Each structure stands twice: as structure tokens, then as C-alpha cells.
From TrEMBL:
GO CC annotations on file: endoplasmic reticulum membrane
Gene3D superfamilies recorded: Cytochrome P450
PANTHER family to which the protein is assigned, alphabetical: CYP9F3-RELATED, CYTOCHROME P450
PROSITE patterns, per the entry: CYTOCHROME_P450
Protein name, per record: Cytochrome P450
MF term (GO), any: monooxygenase activity
Family: Belongs to the cytochrome P450 family.
Length: 452
């Protein structure tokens, strides 16, 4: 059976002949975009014609499905405008010390493990680190799954990430016939998961309001949105309170998207650094040199100075983008520029970001891990749509700054304290899990880890 990346690669070969090709995803016809200029038009310039994703949402029977990622139209615009302020550079700087505290606990946990185990399974450990970061920031709860792997937040994070949510028939219905799926009251998220997150948000809000607690975190933002609305008159779509279920849906998205995408990025990054010891050593040297300038204290400014580490993370995201492609839906007929072609209203378009980021004409020797691709000089040479790890345009990843920050902090703590090398259990070449929605190593990842 042809893998999804191989299928995309075969279709992408037609990029010199046409701006897009037609393909079928299961039984759904989809427009596959294969020219970068057209991709830029659809994601950025002509976004008003492609602002929807066409994802399954059922607010009544599957309330957590109504997250920012899935919403369309005015509801998406309303929620996006309300959530964006929590991910500014200023807010990241405010939360920096909290993430560093979790990362230091992470390094201590790793130290305890490597005393008795030289070959370390990193997948679960990295997932526990990002779970604790997200749980602390999104919900203001002192998560400690690093100490207790069965901590309740880690339990539900693992349940969402590792257990298949949908059987094949349900997946077919929500993908191909979403209107029928809504009439059948189909759930895409387990009832126990839904109840846990809604109840957690309810209790957190109640406690903060009754005790006048303010933490300037994600939950505070949701509370403040409703306080601001109370000052205004009217209940229009752009001026109304968020319901408890809507708050829970956004918190759930932030939790799930934040912990799994960042942890898998760290997994692939450490894998490549283990295989490329010269790159690992250069990164470690940069970390030590910068910290020395800052009295051996990791500050926000110190992190910003670690430019080689940033290049390493970008190259990791190029080679291993968590999401293989981007989906948009035409909200009106769209005449394709410089052609007599039309993308009809209602048609879904797919941007094959994994394939683009492995195009040898854009990235020579794309299977080689080379952070030098992301020097400022090299980046300026490439088309702006040649790197799409966080999406592009108004529907890009709203939390990309936070994801990059927790990834960088975690890697800094690990690289300054530990040496990573391949072991007999390390897959060479990498083998991906074909059943995961996010690009993940099959069976996790074992590396040899030694304390420096």
C-alpha cells in the first residue's frame, strides 16, 4: 500500500504542468495545490475566499469539537480574535520562568532515569514534560506527571494521543458526510475526556472568580473575555460571552495540540542530534557560551541569542513537520490566476507541506539534516511558502510562539546536561507510525543518554 507521503510525492510531480491536481481522499474529491505562488494566494492574498477548513463540528453532542482549529466563518473569526492576545511575545516572556521551572524538573527526572538506564525511551518522558508545561499554563494547575506518570492530565493526554478515537466507519462519516454525522450525533472525542475537560475548566473558573485569583495565563484570558463582554451592550456574534463548553473546547485544543506537537518535535530533534554528533556539540557549545554571558542563568534574552538552536529546530520542523498538510475550503468560486481554471465553491484544497519541505529543488538533499539551510541568508533565497510547519496566513498556528518556546527551553536543559547517542534500539532510518494523525516515530524512540 502506498504511504500518504509517497502518494503526495507522486502527485506533486505535476507541478511544472499545472498549479493543482485533483485527487481523492477516501471518496472525497480534493484540490491538491502544487505550485507555491497559488498556495501563497490561497493562504494569504486571497484568504477571504478560503477562510474555512470544513472540519467536523457538533457543538451540541461533541462540544470539544468546537475548537478554534475546527471552527469556520464568523465563529472562527470571533474566537481567533479573542485568543490571539494570549500568545504575544510579551505574554511569552511573562510565562518564561514557569516553563523553565518545569524544564528543570524535567532534567532532574532524566538524571534519575539515566542512573539506572543507559537506553532511554524518550517518547513518554517528553510527553510528560510538555503535558506539565501546558497543564500549568492553560489551566493554572501544578501538573507533575514527570514525578507521577499516571497524573490525571497525563492520563487524558495519553488517552487522546494514543488511543484511536474513531473507528473506520465513524471516521468515514465525519470526513465524507459531516452533515449526516451531525444528524447521527456522532462523537469524535470520548465522553469521559469531554466531561473531564469541561469540569476542570468549570472548577478552575469558579475557584478564581470566588477567590479573586489572577495568573495571567490562558484560563485568565478566557475569563477576561467574558468580563469585557459584560461591559458592552448586545449579544451579536462579535460581542457575546463564551459558554463554558466553548472555553473548554479552546483549552482542550491548546492542551492537545501543545503537548503532542512539541514533544514529537523534540523527539525528532534529539534523534537527528544523536545521529549528527558534530551538530549536537556545536549546539551545546552555543548554549554554554550564551549562558556564561548571562551568569549561567537561562533568561528570555539568553534563549533569544541561541540562534543555532533555532536553526536546528527549524530544520527539524522542515524534515519532520507534525502536520503533513494544510486544509482549506473555498467559500466562493475562485478563478485561478493566469489560467482558465476555477476552484468551485465548497471544494476543499490541500497544501502538501511535508512534500514541499522535501522538494530537492527547494532543499537539495532533503533527507540530509542540515541546520545551515536556515541561516537568514539562505531563508531569504527561498519562496515564503517553502516552509509551512506552522501554516501561513490568518489561519496559521495561533500558539506557535508558545510551542517554540517550550521546545527551545526543554532542549536547552537537556543538551547542557546530557549527551545523546544512537543505541541498538534506535531506528535507522526512522520509521513513522502510519496510524497517527501527527507525524510520530513508530514505537517511540530509544536513545543512549549519558549525564555530562
Amino acid at each position: 500500500m502506498t504511504s500518504f507521503p509517497d502518494f503526495m510525492r507522486d502527485a506533486y510531480k505535476y507541478k511544472e504542468k499545472s498549479p493543482f491536481v485533483g485527487v481523492y481522499f477516501i471518496a472525497k474529491p480534493v484540490v491538491l495545490l502544487i505550485q507555491l505562488d497559488l498556495i501563497q494566494n490561497i493562504l494569504v492574498k486571497d484568504f477571504s475566499s478560503f477562510h474555512d477548513r470544513g472540519m467536523y463540528v457538533n457543538e451540541d453532542f461533541d462540544p470539544l469539537s468546537a475548537s478554534l482549529f475546527n471552527l469556520d466563518g464568523e465563529k472562527w473569526k470571533f474566537v481567533r480574535s479573542k485568543l490571539s492576545p494570549t500568545f504575544t511575545s510579551g505574554k511569552m516572556k511573562y510565562m518564561f520562568s514557569t516553563v523553565v521551572g518545569v524544564a528543570e524538573r524535567f532534567a532532574n527526572t532524566m538524571s534519575d532515569i539515566v542512573r539506572t538506564e543507559s537506553e532511554t525511551q524518550l517518547k513518554d518522558l517528553l510527553g510528560r514534560y510538555t503535558t506539565d508545561v501546558i497543564g500549568t499554563y492553560a489551566f493554572g494547575i501544578e501538573c507533575d506527571s514527570l514525578k507521577d506518570p499516571n497524573f490525571i492530565f497525563r492520563h487524558y493526554g495519553r488517552k487522546v494521543a494514543e488511543e484511536p478515537n474513531l473507528n473506520p466507519i465513524v471516521h468515514f462519516l465525519v470526513t465524507i458526510y459531516p452533515n449526516l454525522a451531525r444528524k447521527l450525533k456522532i462523537r469524535t472525542i470520548g465522553k469521559d475526556v469531554t466531561e473531564f475537560f469541561i469540569e476542570t475548566v468549570r472548577k478552575t473558573i469558579q475557584y478564581r472568580e470566588e477567590n479573586n485569583v489572577q495568573r495571567n495565563d490562558f484560563m485568565d484570558l478566557l475569563i477576561q473575555i467574558n468580563k469585557d463582554v459584560e461591559k458592552n451592550v448586545g449579544q451579536s456574534e462579535t460581542s457575546r460571552r463564551l459558554t463554558l463548553e466553548e472555553m473548554a473546547a479552546q483549552a482542550f485544543l491548546f492542551f492537545v495540540a501543545g503537548f503532542e506537537t512539541s514533544s514529537t518535535t523534540m523527539i525528532f530533534c534529539l534523534y537527528e542530534l544523536a545521529l549528527n554528533q558534530d551538530i549536537q556539540e556545536r549546539s551545546r557549545q552555543e548554549i554554554n557560551d550564551v549562558l556564561k554571558k548571562h551568569n549561567n542563568k537561562l533568561t528570555y534574552e539568553a534563549m533569544q541569542e541561541m540562534t543555532y538552536l533555532e536553526m536546528i529546530i527549524k530544520e527539524t520542523l522542515r524534515k519532520y513537520p507534525p502536520i503533513l498538510g494544510l486544509i482549506r475550503k473555498a467559500v466562493r468560486d475562485y478563478p485561478v490566476p493566469n489560467s482558465n481554471l476555477i476552484i468551485e465553491k465548497g471544494k476543499e484544497v490541500f497544501v502538501p507541506s511535508y512534500t514541499i519541505q522535501h522538494d530537492p529543488e527547494i532543499y537539495p538533499n532533503p533527507d540530509v539534516f542540515d541546520p545551515e539551510r536556515f541561516t537568514p541568508k539562505e531563508e531569504k533565497k527561498r519562496h515564503p511558502m517553502s516552509f509551512l510547519a506552522f501554516g501561513e496566513g490568518p489561519r496559521n498556528c495561533v500558539g506557535f510562539r508558545f510551542g517554540k518556546m517550550q521546545t527551545r527551553i526543554g532542549l536547552i536543559e537537556l543538551l547542557k546536561n546530557f549527551q545523546f547517542s544512537p543505541c541498538p534500539k534506535t531506528p535507522i532510518p526512522m520509521v513513522f507510525d502510519p496510524y497517527k494523525g501527527i507525524l510520530s516515530p513508530k514505537g517511540g524512540l530509544f536513545l543512549e543518554v549519558k549525564r555530562i
